[in-house]
């Protein structure tokens, strides 16, 4: 590829092994973010243009996406130097090797209408530092994903508008946002949000593994998770000095042999899209800087992990509440002799009731009679027949490695609003459900 953008060439080399080729260049193309930047900063500059240059990209002669290049202006009204990136909105498919057959699960993938181009991707952007830094760009990426997940409920906004909503003015002066700002921005755009912060009383005793499993549940559900990290602990930052930074988790990796969720796939909006980070490396990087700890009165040995996730507005029950209830339910059933074991590998997903009904009616059970037994009980649960009610679906697996084949031995459903149990079934053992007519839970063993 002819060098047009050094930053894009760097992305192409690292993430795509230089296999992305330039199909064509479109001058005068539309880009929502750049136009917002132009309107609020550059419109009085006679050299500024309200349009962008678009790179139309190919992989093995197939369309692979677009990358919009914003015009790089020499100075701002404050006489700042050139900002870091000419890359604006980018809608590019993941690299070919990031496929489920290779243990990569990009859960936030969506069919995006990118200015008339339908592209299956996770939207990416590099911020113009005049208008926002990493946190503002993280919110933009998250809202783009949630817009696809929630339909009409959530709408994305250009980074200048995100910055103004957070601070009351368009200019960031190279400053990011606190996690409290991120939470408020998500709620302002019709999302519910859950914050995880080990400096807070409610999370200070959570282990890394517990938090890791919590954020995995959201990522598995196709919900982007914004994480705070120390860039000096990220290898692709090339020995950078310590600095607090946000990244967006968009998928996970799985060990094909053991079934372990051994890492995440992320967008680092200052460096690269579609980066992989393994669990051990994340444990080192998921922390604030020593300077921040000193300012807040913590010792350098204290680990402070911060994350925020936006969810559809109707969801009020966080995953940690659900999994606690679930363990209590299984333990109670086990102690009463209703089930043979109480520990199952879990694949959690936040889904709507329509997805569940379609899935369960097309499921194939080893014993077809159990499927009939289950469906008779499901018909007694009116809740499951309301469309688009959000539920936490915990898929129970017999063995850890079975998660790869999506084989389940049972499932537990919890209301996404109240967190209450709706249905639990374990194949060839029992069905536990809430009978609305009799206003009570029932346990029906399978004979």
Architecture blueprint of SSEs:
Layout lengths: L5 H11 L4 E9 L2 H11 L9 E8 L2 E8 L17 E6 L11 E2 L4 E5 L2 E5 L2 E2 L8 H17 L8 H9 L11 H10 L3 E6 L10 H13 L4 E6 L13 E11 L6 E8 L3 E7 H7 L4 H7 L9 E6 L7 H17 L10 E7 H10 L5 H11 L11 E7 L13 E6 L5 E6 L3 E6 L4 E6 L2
Helix pairs in contact: 3-5, 4-5
Query: What's the shape?
Result: globular
Number of self-contained structural domains: 2
CATH class of the largest domain, named Alpha Beta
What would CATH call the homologous superfamily of the largest domain? Cysteine proteinases
**Strands, count:** 20
User: What portion of residues belong to β-strands?
Assistant: 25-35%
What would you call the structural class?
alpha+beta
Low-confidence stretches: none
Into which percent range does the helicity of residues fall? 25-40%
Q: Could you tell me the CATH topology label of the largest domain.
A: Cathepsin B, Chain A
**Tally of separate helices:** 11
CATH architecture of the largest domain: Alpha-Beta Complex
- The average pLDDT is 89
Radius of gyration: 24 Å
What is the CA–CA distance across the termini? 66 Å
């Amino acid at each position: 590829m002819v060098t047009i953008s050094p930053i894009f060439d760097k992305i192409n080399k690292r993430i795509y092994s230089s296999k992305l080729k330039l199909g064509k260049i479109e001058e005068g193309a539309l880009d929502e973010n750049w136009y917002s930047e132009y309107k609020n900063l550059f419109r009085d500059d006679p050299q500024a243009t309200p349009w962008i240059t678009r790179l139309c990209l190919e992989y093995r002669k197939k369309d692979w996406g677009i990358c919009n290049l914003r015009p790089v202006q020499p100075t701002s009204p404050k006489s700042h130097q050139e900002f870091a990136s000419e890359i604006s909105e980018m809608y590019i498919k993941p690299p070919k090797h990031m496929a489920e057959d290779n243990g990569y699960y990009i859960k936030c993938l969506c069919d995006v209408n990118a200015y008339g181009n339908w592209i299956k991707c996770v939207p990416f952007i590099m911020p113009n530092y005049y208008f926002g830094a990493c946190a503002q760009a993280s919110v933009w990426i998250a809202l783009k994903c949630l817009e696809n997940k929630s339909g009409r409920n959530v709408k994305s906004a250009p980074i200048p508008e995100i910055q103004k909503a957070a601070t009351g003015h368009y200019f960031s002066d190279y400053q990011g946002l606190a996690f409290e700002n991120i939470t408020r921005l998500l709620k302002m755009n019709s999302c519910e949000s859950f914050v995880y912060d080990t400096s807070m009383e409610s999370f200070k005793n959570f282990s890394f593994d517990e938090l890791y499993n919590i954020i995995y549940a959201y990522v598995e559900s196709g919900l982007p998770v914004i994480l705070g990290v120390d860039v000096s602990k990220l290898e692709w930052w090339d020995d950078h000095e310590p600095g607090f930074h946000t990244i967006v988790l968009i998928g996970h990796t799985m060990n094909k042999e053991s079934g372990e969720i051994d890492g995440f796939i992320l967008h680092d909006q200052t460096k690269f899209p579609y980066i992989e980070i393994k669990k051990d490396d994340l444990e080192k990087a998921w922390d604030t800087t020593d300077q921040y700890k000193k300012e807040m009165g913590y010792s350098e040995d204290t680990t402070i992990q911060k994350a925020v996730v936006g969810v559809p507005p109707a969801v009020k029950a966080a995953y940690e509440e659900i999994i606690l209830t679930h363990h209590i339910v299984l333990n109670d059933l086990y102690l009463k002799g209703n089930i043979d074991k109480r520990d199952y590998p879990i694949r959690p997903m936040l889904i709507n009731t329509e997805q569940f009904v379609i899935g369960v009616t097309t499921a194939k059970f080893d014993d077809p009679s159990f499927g009939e037994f289950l469906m008779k009980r499901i018909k007694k649960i009116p809740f499951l027949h309301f469309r688009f009610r959000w539920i936490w679906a915990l898929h129970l697996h017999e063995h850890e490695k079975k998660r790869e084949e999506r084989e389940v031995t049972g499932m537990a459903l919890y209301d996404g609003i109240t967190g209450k149990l709706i249905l639990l079934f374990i194949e060839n053992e029992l069905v536990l459900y809430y009978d609305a007519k009799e206003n009570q839970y029932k346990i029906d063993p399978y004979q």
